Amino acid sequence: MVILKSRADIEEMRKAGRIVAAFHQAIADMIRPGVTTLDIESFAVRFLKENGAKAYTMGYNGYPFATCASVNDVIAHGFPSRKPLKEGDIVTIDIVAEADGWIGDSAWSYAVGEVSDEARKLMQITKECLYLGIEQAVVGNRIGDVMHAVQTHAEHNGFSVVRDLLGHGVGREMHEEPNYPHIGKPGKGFRLKEGMVLTIEPMLNAGTPLMTIDADGWTARTADGSLSAQYEHTIAVIADGPIILTAQ
């Protein structure tokens, strides 16, 4: 069942969204060659606590960390590690904060020093896909309208869209209904209603859209070893247009 949020609910959700956004702003200056994703994880735990939030993912279905740290060919759900980031890497940091019983969820890809032209283009197009999708997230449109905007922009620029990891509703829980891939056809899928709070979180690969899962049961990688990037916001659908709750 899709749980629609009132305007008052959406206002209460802003706190978690602001905390997640502030975290991403803070780590942008941290990410450089030599830093480890465990350093970022440790910062995240402190940051959430200092800002009155909880790390929602820590212990979620056995996941042991407050962040997901996905480097280069890792699409999503990578474990933070002691391996230093190196010049030319791209790393996606995903964090979910719980504040006052509401969830904020956002992932962002970062360049580590100077990256290749391919990596920079992948990151840029993925971010553009995020905002093109958000533009279509208006009352009365269908999810196919949103994701068609994502898919066509990605594929026009030579990138593929991951099919197997889904966007989702957000509220008191991280994963609420509905769930949906980031591909679609105009006029298809469920209709967007006022009060829906959703993630738009395109994951684009430089090669195949197919993926594999590591032995840890979490880490999703591109099947061909190509680079992957992701940008994610939590948005609220209201009559005036979409609100980005995790806007930085």
TrEMBL record:
Gene3D superfamilies: Creatinase/methionine aminopeptidase superfamily (3.90.230.10). This is Methionine aminopeptidase. It holds the Pfam family Peptidase_M24. PANTHER family: METHIONINE AMINOPEPTIDASE. A divalent metal cation 2 binds at residues 105, 168, 201, 232. A divalent metal cation 1 binds at residues 94, 105, 232. Keywords: Aminopeptidase, Hydrolase, Metal-binding, Protease. Substrate binds at residues 77, 175. Binds 2 divalent metal cations per subunit. Has a high-affinity and a low affinity metal-binding site. The true nature of the physiological cofactor is under debate. The enzyme is active with cobalt, zinc, manganese or divalent iron ions. Most likely, methionine aminopeptidases function as mononuclear Fe(2+)-metalloproteases under physiological conditions, and the catalytically relevant metal-binding site has been assigned to the histidine-containing high-affinity site. It catalyses: Release of N-terminal amino acids, preferentially methionine, from peptides and arylamides. Its cofactor is Co(2+); Zn(2+); Mn(2+); Fe(2+). Belongs to the peptidase M24A family. Methionine aminopeptidase type 1 subfamily. Residues 11-237 form the Peptidase M24 domain. Removes the N-terminal methionine from nascent proteins. The N-terminal methionine is often cleaved when the second residue in the primary sequence is small and uncharged (Met-Ala-, Cys, Gly, Pro, Ser, Thr, or Val). Requires deformylation of the N(alpha)-formylated initiator methionine before it can be hydrolyzed. One of its GO terms (molecular function) is aminopeptidase activity. Its EC number is 3.4.11.18. Monomer. The gene is map. It is an enzyme of class 3 (hydrolase). HAMAP family: MetAP_1.
